[in-house]
Design brief:
Blueprint lengths: L2 E2 H4 L3 E4 L5 E11 L4 E7 L6 E4 L3 E4 L3 E4 L5 E2 L4 H8 L8 E4 L4 E10 L6 E6 L2 E4 L3 E4 L4 E3 L6 E2 L3
Parallel strand pairs: 2-7, 9-14
Antiparallel strand pairs: 1-10, 2-3, 3-4, 4-5, 5-8, 6-7, 9-10, 10-11, 11-12, 12-15, 13-14
Length: about 150
């Protein structure tokens, strides 16, 4: 079973301890080196908060469950602030091959909701394996040229 980044946006985040709604997913932060979701961003602007993926205890179709309210943290480090601002966003980012060829924009990313591991990247209408993601910066994401890209599934 897999989830997509686009379908995760707007999903409510609930504390298992208090059953209170903590907010809604506004971004997913990716750790490119490990090709996994590193954190969720809840809210936007100055009110945005982060939830590290390690604090997620359930990722269902209706809600994301975290252990308790203490899972929320303010963006203090520069990397956290950049994540909240969208610097690590993959969806809609320009995709280039490692040879500099234009691959289109990243349409979506699929991931395992149990582990946060990325599974596939859909760029320019082509599905690519997550291991083809080589890096991501402010300008573009870089994907391996010699991918076994297939036509995207609707």
């Amino acid at each position: 079973m897999s989830e997509t980044f686009r379908s995760a946006l707007g999903r409510k985040v609930v504390s298992r301890a208090s059953a209170e709604r903590l907010g809604y997913v506004s971004r997913l932060v990716v750790d490119v080196e490990h090709r996994a979701v590193a954190a969720l961003v809840l809210g936007k602007g100055r009110k945005a908060r982060l939830v590290d993926w390690t604090s997620v205890v359930g990722f269902g179709p209706d809600a994301v469950i975290v252990a308790d309210d203490g899972a929320l943290r303010a963006p203090v480090e520069d990397a956290d602030k950049a994540a909240v601002a969208g610097a690590f966003e993959l969806v809609s980012k320009r995709a280039l091959s490692d040879r500099g060829n234009e691959l289109g924009k990243i349409d979506d990313v699929t991931f395992d909701p149990a582990t946060g591991k990325l599974q596939r990247i859909i760029a320019g209408g082509q599905e690519r394996e997550a291991q083809d993601l080589l890096g991501s910066g402010s300008y573009a994401a870089v994907l391996r040229e010699a991918s076994n890209a297939t036509g995207a599934r609707a």
